[in-house]
Amino acid sequence: MEGKMSEDILNLNLWEIKTHEGKEILEELSLKESECSTDDLQKWLAESPQIIDPDTIIIGKDVDGMDLLGLNNEGRLTAIELKIKNSRDGIMQAINYASKMAEKDEIWLFEKYRDKHSKELKEVFANKFRLPLEKINFTHPKIIIVGTEPDEYTARMIRFMNGYGMDINFVTFRYFVAQDGKGFLTRNTIVQAVSMEPPKPTPREVEQKQPPVTTKTTKEIVDILTEFLIKHPLRPFEVPTSRQNYVTYYFRGKVLIFIGLNAENGKCPVRLRFTNLAGLKNGAQEGKLWVEEKLKSFKPELEKEKEMEYKFLLANKDEAKTFLNELDEYLKK
């Protein structure tokens, strides 16, 4: 078939070196190539991700269309697309899924991992890599195309895209069965992504890297807010965020709170998100009613309607304390 490097079924002969009565002898182990299903390959990679990347944690299988979603030790997402017969289709699908990741955030990722593993991603990451999970890169994911048949067209396309700074690998696995029924996998990296110059930052990233503009009052308000949240009996957890100069706290089932370290017009920005993500399924409508009833005097601005995210500007410490009193009553419901 045109475009295939090889489509032959292999019979692989190996010889195990053993010692018998002081002499080394060779014992033959005959392996015959067998078909491998996508489901089997997906299961094996999910359970043993080290065979594709030793520095990756698998978030889960079938995550928003992706066969496998991972997170590596640098905080970069890894989209893994399995294509047994047509690796070229896998490239476009993987790029499509990876582009969707740029629209996601840390809470979405934490919820996906918790739903699939009943564990906290931050804890698993710290235990595996001995590093804190400080920031997750959603904008420049790593892409791995996995197939069973080497395809020169796929390899050429990936090399071309690597030349433009995209991090894409092409890996193939072949499955063999021994005479005693034991299965074996072999791996071949057809295209390994090369080290490239880092991509130019987007305008949003440039803006985020600007140094914070703070005032004494803003710092005092931030201290009041963070002290309240840290000591709150509901014990929110601090989560990393792609928003530069913000600290973020999450009350499961209630609200996501962004506290801005940058002063805006001399005031401290605070954002409350009542989203319909897992864990906040009832929070959106409840939060909307609470804001409209109890926080109307703070002149809330609905910035993101889909995520139900409101922006507030707190001018002084008294406003911050009043705001927290209302927040405390909401959290106790």
Task: Characterise this structure.
- This protein is of the alpha+beta class.
- It folds into two domains: 35-197, Trna Endonuclease, Chain: A, domain 1, CATH 3.40.1350; 206-331.
- 32% of the residues lie in helices and 32% in strands.
- Strand 11 (255-260) and strand 12 form a beta hairpin.
- Helix 7 (216-231) runs parallel beside helix 9 (317-331).
Features of the shown structure:
333 residues; alpha+beta; Trna Endonuclease, Chain: A, domain 1; 2 domains; eight-stranded mixed sheet; six-stranded antiparallel sheet; 9 helices
Structure described in brief:
The protein is α+β, with helices and mostly antiparallel strands. The chain has helices at 38-47, 87-101, 106-117, 121-129, 152-162, 203-208, 216-231, 283-294, 317-331, and strands spanning 11-20, 23-34, 56-63, 66-72, 76-82, 137-147, 168-178, 183-191, 237-239, 246-251, 255-260, 268-273, 301-304, 309-314.
* The top level CATH class name of the largest domain: Alpha Beta
Under the CATH scheme, the architecture of the largest domain is 3-Layer(aba) Sandwich
What percentage of residues falls in helices of 4 or more residues?
Answer: 25-40%
Largest sheet: 8 strands, mixed
The CATH topology name of the largest domain reads: Trna Endonuclease, Chain: A, domain 1
